[in-house]
Amino acid sequence: MAQSNAFMDSLRNMWNIPELRRRLLFTLGLLAIYRLGGHVPTPGVDATALAQLMKSNSMLGLYDLFVGGSFSRATIFALGIMPYISASIILQVLGTVVPHLEKLQKEGEEGRRKITQYTRYGTVLISLIQSYAFSMFLESFKGASGVEVVSNPGMSFRLITMLTQTTGTIGIMWLGEQITERGIGNGISLIIMVGIIARLPNDLITTFTSLKNGTLNALVLIPALLFMFAVIASVVLMTQAQRKIPVQYAKRVVGRKTYGGQNTHIPLRVNTAGVIPIIFAQSLIILPVSIAAFFPKSDFLAGVAQELSHNSPIYVILYSLVIIFFTYFYTAVVLNPEDLAENIRKFGGFVPGIRPGKKTAEYIDYIMNRITLPGAVFLAAIAVVPDLLVDRMNLTFRFGGTSVLIVVGVALDTLQQIESHLLMRHYDGLVKKGKLRGRR
Fold it and tell me: Helix 313-334 to helix 276-294 angle, to the nearest 10 degrees?
């Protein structure tokens, strides 16, 4: 009871801070606009026939999960924020091989502004390509009842779809940037999270109806719920897990002031790459299936798509290996041991027992390789195992580890920002026992 009262006091404190209240209301308002836009249909599409098609295509349904069902309804937000994420990832990767982009990454605020501008241009280009492919995809399929998804196919429909979907993606990108700048939390991540949890009410209603009709056994549902809690707990644990490398700074006397002399640490996350490797792997695995959809008469592509069908043995093995590969790849992109070691040396720091410079870089690289392996294996397991068990139990709702990983990561990051606002104004945080990363 005492913990419940303390939590309610923290919630009241959130509304007592004018700036935090304004940011929360602004964030909720823009997220509501995003959800409303997810129900505005694209002109010329039979949404009922398309929804029937999506029920029989689990791979495309997986993409639909990230956009909150907008893909299956062919709304103006059908592409979601994925083109923006793809453009961001491409620029991050190019930043390691293109000298101009690498220079911009090191130029501070001005460089970040330029990279953001390039990301927007890339988002528009990717949206145009994907929206054209989406229009062709809609034209090539019929619903389960034989009704065509597009009643009047042709170039006019494709151009309208390209204009509608590209504009919708730009609108989502703007909403995300506004939330990040004037709201609370990371706007792009919150949009993805809202899209995922938007399906929760429908899943709950479906589950309750199945229990009532007897199509779902309660003896099956109880172990499934326990497994869900175990997955959520493991995701929280791995998201927060860190390997701390101790660093000492020598004392420096400048005038009458003494700088340095303290002991600190470098927190290396076990899951540095986050959910990015899973998004990379999904994009790569779904590519042959998407290509096969454009060439329905090709027996070879149809065979490849069949072998890569959802949860087939080849799909599970290949998907897991690709996730592990991209985990190491993306970790190497976002964390450069040489730069980290150089920054430590510049500020007069050193790792106890390790020589500054090259030896420190080698030591950090050694530690990163060791802690990345369990993180990569965990990502592969969390992306594959829950789906396999859901299919084995014949549940009426989908419970994917990928969606849990995104929701937990975004929720923790948002709570950390709210916690910072509360503590900065001398209020108690949301969590009294334990602590969120970032609280001192």
Answer: 130
Query: Which H/E stretch holds residue 350?
Result: strand 349-350
Residue whose structure tokens are 């396999």: 388
CA distance 416 to 438: 7
What distances in angstroms separate CA 235 from CA 85, 89, 117, 204, 320, one per listed residue?
22, 23, 34, 22, 17
Which of 412, 407, 405, 406 has the alpha carbon at shortest distance from 431? 412
Angle formed at CA 124 by CA 121 and CA 130, multiple of 5 degrees: 140
295-334 pLDDT per residue, tens: 656 677 667 767 666 667 888 888 889 889 889 888 887 7
Burial class (CB in 10 A: 0-12, 13-18, 19+), 241: middle
pLDDT in tens, 270-291: 888 877 788 778 767 776 766 6
Q: Which two tokens stand for residue 389?
A: 């068990």
Q: At what angle do helices 187-197 and 155-182 cross, to 10 degrees?
A: 120
Cβ-count burial 151-179 (b if 16+ within 10 Å, e if not): eebeeebbeebbebbbebbbebbebbeeb
